[in-house]
Every structure is written in structure tokens, then in C-alpha cells.
Description:
Elements: H1 13-37, H2 47-70, H3 74-77, H4 82-115, H5 119-127, H6 130-149, H7 151-155, H8 159-165, H9 169-183, H10 191-223, E1 226-232, E2 237-243, E3 257-261, E4 272-275, E5 284-290, H11 294-297, E6 309-314, E7 326-332, H12 336-342, E8 352-357, H13 367-377, E9 380-384, H14 397-403, E10 410-417, H15 418-430, E11 438-443
Parallel strand pairs: 7-8, 7-10, 8-9, 10-11
Antiparallel strand pairs: 1-2, 2-5, 3-4, 3-6
Helix pairs in contact: 1-2, 2-4, 2-10, 4-5, 4-6, 6-9
Domain FAD-binding FR-type: 220-320
InterPro entries: FAD-bd_FR_type, Fe3_Rdtase_TM_dom, FNR_nucleotide-bd, MRET, OxRdtase_FAD/NAD-bd, Riboflavin_synthase-like_b-brl
Keywords: 2Fe-2S, FAD, Flavoprotein, Iron, Iron-sulfur, Membrane, Metal-binding, Oxidoreductase, Transmembrane, Transmembrane helix
Amino acid sequence: MYTATPPQVRRTGQSRAAYLTLWMFLLVNLVIVEVMFVNPSRPAPNTLTAIGRFLGLHLGFVMALQLLLIGRVPFLERRIGMDKLTNWHRWTGFTIFWLVVLHPTFVLLGYSRLDQISFFAEIPNLAEQMPVLLGMIAAGLVCVMAFTSVRMARRRMSYEAWHATHMVVYVMIVLSVIHQVYEGSSFASSTLTKAYWWGLWAFAIGSLLVNRLFVPLARNARHRLRVVAVVPETDQAVSVYVGGDRLDRLRARPGQFFWWRFPGHNSWWQVNPWSLSAAPDGRTLRLTAKAIGSTSAGLRQLPVGTRVYIEGPYGALTTASRTRQNALLIAGGIGITPIRALLEDPDLTGDIVVLYRARTPADAVLIGELRNLVQARGARLHLLTGRTTDGSQPFSPESLRGLVPDIAERDVYLCGPAAMAATVQRSLRALRVPARQRHIEAFRLGV
């Protein structure tokens, strides 16, 4: 029989601290940027170029902010969660796109008026200067990334293709920094502003290198991860067991995920975020994936002994964010993996209800394990099958209230496709479930 530790209701102080830190970083730096703009090293020749400089200065700051968001800073990833950070990343990306469009537009308009030539004639005129040309190339790369991030384009691309396209972000960063070195005027007005500006970029680039390169390299060298077993779960899903040295030192928690690479089996740039589908025990890690892209489909052919390279653990879908005694766990499709792991967490106490959405009973991955865990914990499981086109609306406010009458008094953990997550979010708001009680990870693309 499952024995749990005494109930422990967690507070959301860590999450609030992370949000406060992020917002304070944003606001303080914006104030500094405004002060820098009004004290440039050289005045703009006219109003149009001044507007262009204003937009360019803010573009540089927003790009540094974006680096921090894609840098997988543990302080943010483990307290805010990938889902919310991905939303920040997405909106910051579109802000960069519009600034990239408007900044050169106003600069070109200003210089075309100054040189008394047409807008289009000014383009090759400025492009003769190498720093400006590099900035134009960087702007073109930003436009490519923005186009591939549009929902219609994303739906037509595999995750692997989308991720490979977004690797050009690193080329764009290099070109942008070179452009700023030669063209910056607002942050070159004094030694202090130069120190601030390059300190900001050093912090952003340093965070990226440390968290996405140096720390993962050190951890993987220490733990020496290898595939120890590959177990088919259904015709479309497979579990991969990974062993290594001293895995307890990873401090991974049920509900978290890693970014996984399999060097030697896949290309080095192929990386996927997969949640742990079982609570880490210090000896092995287990992921369970559905054959959606080429990488996940190829997991069945992973030879035992294949090297594994991970980044993480990440994610805030853990019991550390609990605010209530009882919990509702909701999963859609392969989103059952972190939910199944959470059921093994001894800190998940109280009355537990699990809602598992699958197209058919045969599509319910890990259903046998789930039923055993639910029975051992005295929890309740509802397997919700069928198509919404047949009139089934399992996540409408009425359906959720019918299945879990006290839903507003529970912590709600959710993992599933983005469309399903959006539907559940709307219903939770309609049912007046406070935001602090909603813990969500949706399937979204992340760099």
C-alpha cells in the first residue's frame, strides 16, 4: 500500500520572486535605456534618424532580454515554467520583428532626406558600410525566424526542421553585436554607459553559454548517461530508460523535463524536450515519447548503450508550487508522462483526481501503470475518450464541475497539446479557479 508523507501545502513565494525579478529587470533596464537615449554621443541629423536610433536602442535591449529567455536560466525555468516563459519568448520575438522592421525604415528615411535621394536609393548607399550591411543581414535572419514562427508555417514544419531554422539565431546575435559596436551612439556617450551596455550583453551571452553549454557539458561528463533499455508501450509510443553515475545529484523532480540528445544516433542539433514519465530514483531516468517527429519515431531503434546528452532538469509542474491540500491532474495524449510521474511524488498528498484525455482507450499510453498508481493512492481516474466532433466536450466548465465539484478548491496540474490547454484554461477561469492554483505545461515549440 502506498504510504505518503504528512500533507505539506506549498506556497508560491518562489514563483512570485521569479516574476518580480523578471519584471524588475525589465523595468529598471528600460529606464536606463531611456536615459541613454536622451544623452547620445553624437546628435541625430534629423527627427527621422532620431526615431530610428530610439527604436534601435530598444531593439538591442529586447534582443538581450530574448537571450536570457532562451538561455534556460534555472532560476526562471524551475519557478515560472517552460509554458509561461515560451509565451514571453514568443511575444518578445514578435517585438524584435517589428523593431527590426521599423528601426532601419526610419534610419533609411532620415538619411534619404539628408542625402536628398529616394528611400530605395539609400539602401545600397548605406549597405556599402560593412557594419550596416551586417545589420541588414541580421534583420533578414530575424524576418526568416519570425516567418517560421507564424502559426500557419509552424503547422507545416516538423519540430526538427523548425528547431534547425531557429539555430540561425546565434548567427544573428554575432552580426547584431558587431553592428552595435560600430553603429551605437546612445550607449557610447560615456565610459559608464559603455560599461552598462556591454555588461548587459555579457550577462545575457554569459547566461546562454553557461546554462546551455558549460553546465550541460560538465553534468554529462560527470553522469556519463547511456541508454539501458528501450520498451515499446503502444504501436506509437516507446519508453527509454537512461542510466548513469550519481543521478541523484541532478535533483530532478517528478513533473520536470529534460532536453534530450542522442549523439551518434541522431544529428547533434536534434534536441527534444521530453518529460520524465517516472519519478527519478537516483539510478535511472525514464522518458516516454509518441512517434510524432522523426526523432521521437526513431527512439524505437535506439541501441542499448547509446550515449545520451541532457540539459535540465527544467519545469515548474511540480509539487513545489502547491497551494491547496487536494489536487486535480489533467493530461492529454502523451502529456500523461509528467502527470504519471507526479503520482509517484510523496509530496502529492490529499485527495487526488486524474482526468486523462485520449482519442481511444488503445491510445491511452501508460494506462496500466496509471491505474495501479491511482489504486495504490486511493485516487480517482477518469479516462475521457472520443472525438470532440462527436459532441464530446470533456473540458467544458459544466463537464469539469460534474467530474470534480470542488475544482475551485484544488491545485490543477495540466499537461497536453496547446489547443487543449487553452480550452482547459478558459474553463478554469470560468469556474473561478485562481491563477495561483493553475500549473500548466502545454506542448509548444521552444528554442
